[in-house]
Write a structure and sequence with these properties.
Layout: E1 2-5, E2 18-19, E3 25-26, H1 30-37, E4 40-44, E5 51-52, H2 55-59, H3 64-76, E6 84-87, E7 97-101, E8 106-108
Antiparallel strand pairs: 1-6, 2-3, 4-7, 5-6, 7-8
């Protein structure tokens, strides 16, 4: 299963938490993640070719208790599960949309 978000700015569940010196979790956010890791790259796929959540989860046979936990966790992180979608099929590389965050905007890479 390939999982995507319709959130065009930043999918909160994509971030990785960081612990400060007192072991308190600090959300990484887009700009902080870029500072820590370098360039951010995201992959996209046309929404009309995706299956909307929660149908995607049902077709992927994700148990209901796991789906509920994922949705709860997503909301706690600031995500909207209604933004989630994906596919159960392989995606041809030619159909992938590739963007890099330049510090201000997401910039689409031009195909070769």
């Amino acid at each position: 299963m390939l999982w995507f978000s319709l959130n065009q700015e930043w999918e909160p569940t994509a971030q990785k938490d960081r612990r400060d010196l007192d072991c308190v979790a600090q959300a990484a956010g887009k700009k902080r993640a870029r500072q820590r890791a370098g360039n951010l790259v995201r992959f996209g796929y046309p929404a009309e070719k995706c299956i909307a959540w929660p149908l995607l989860a049902r077709r992927a046979k994700i148990p209901l208790r796991i789906r509920i936990a994922l949705e709860r966790w997503g909301r706690e992180e600031g995500a909207n599960p209604a933004d989630w979608c994906g596919t159960l099929r392989a995606i041809p590389l030619a159909d992938l949309i590739v963007e890099v965050f330049d510090g201000h905007d997401w910039v689409m890479l031009k195909p070769r």
